[in-house]
Amino acid sequence: MSETLKVNLGERSYPIYFGTGQGERLREDIASLQNEGRKIAAVTDANIENLLGDFIKHLGHNLRLLVMPPGEKTKSFERLQEICEFLAREGIDRKGCLFAIGGGVVGDLTGFAAASFLRGIEFRQIPTTLLAMVDSSVGGKTGVNLAAGKNLAGAFHQPKAVYIDTSLLETLPPREFAAGMAEVIKTALLADPGFFDRLQSLGKLTPSSPQLPGIIRRCCEIKAAIVAEDERENAPEGGRALLNLGHTFAHAIEAVTGYGNYLHGEAVAVGLVMATRLSQKLGHLSESDVAKVTETVGAYGLPVRLNNPLPASGLCDAMKRDKKTRAGVVHFVILSRLGKAETVNDVPESLWRELWIEAGAENR
Ligand SMILES: NC(=O)c1ccc[n+]([C@@H]2O[C@H](COP(=O)([O-])OP(=O)(O)OC[C@H]3O[C@@H](n4cnc5c(N)ncnc54)[C@H](O)[C@@H]3O)[C@@H](O)[C@H]2O)c1
Q: How, if at all, do strands 64-68 and 40-45 pair?
């Protein structure tokens, strides 16, 4: 099976290729780039090199590969510099092309390197985690973390193509697969009631579930449509910001715990339940809606509340530093129903604090 979805962004439009056997397409694309005299480099992480080494090796000759340590801490300025130095050493010029072979960490970091090196070279995404397939490889947000917060430095830089091959998920640890499902559930919750119902009725999916390719594609369709409407998240309300459902809470958890304790998708899982609870407190959802979301998230063994007692004040402060804060006002994405999201900016701090304490934070 091989099919294509176009991300419509005028001259920055690009294809997302789906289907097993992307290795073949990649070999052809890389060979044809090289035939044009273009140099090709790629970045991956050590786990992927270890587990998917054969896949990478068969992508082509003369592929200059840089291997990063795995994990969220790699999304840093030090690693960004390392990639840029590597590209310079390898003689990559403006016509060069950089491939990101990995999850969201490799994708975000490599994309930022491609945006920065020589003020911008082409890059392409080969996502290898579920999270990257359904979310981070599409849409052109690239960046690194700062001690002050997640993704606080970065650039919009769209890939030239995205190659999604679900067979690469066979080696993905179950915990990482579950973390990706948090973004799948997020996507359904914010945009498509029928999709959320379907996720509930399907029960627990695995990398070999026959429904998975269709689910990944649906997530990409939703994300591509939102990004096409509001590429740089400028819409005064709604728009691309809706993709941050649960993320104001999630980024605070990640910042306070120092990017190591929770996987990004796990923090998103807690954030989704909190955003649903917030929507219920604001009068949009029922208790049974909250229960449905909690159950769907929990079915994957994802956390639905904090698993260690973090201080509520620190979490609230981290929310104020989040980059979605505009003119000092924290913006939230809430659900007007399951499958439809909206942005709000008038949630009192006392209510965020209450939500954190209900989610297991310490009242200090
Ligand atoms: N740019 C965006 O729009 C966007 C959207 C969502 C999330 N993100 C970012 O994505 C990041 C999280 O991405 P992630 O969850 O993919 O994390 P990740 O890149 O750290 O990958 C998770 C782990 O899985 C391993 N791995 C990757 N592919 C594998 C495979 N096929 N088999 C076995 N192991 C494999 C990696 O080595 C790593 O240890 C966060 O930094 C988040 O901020 C970005």
A: parallel
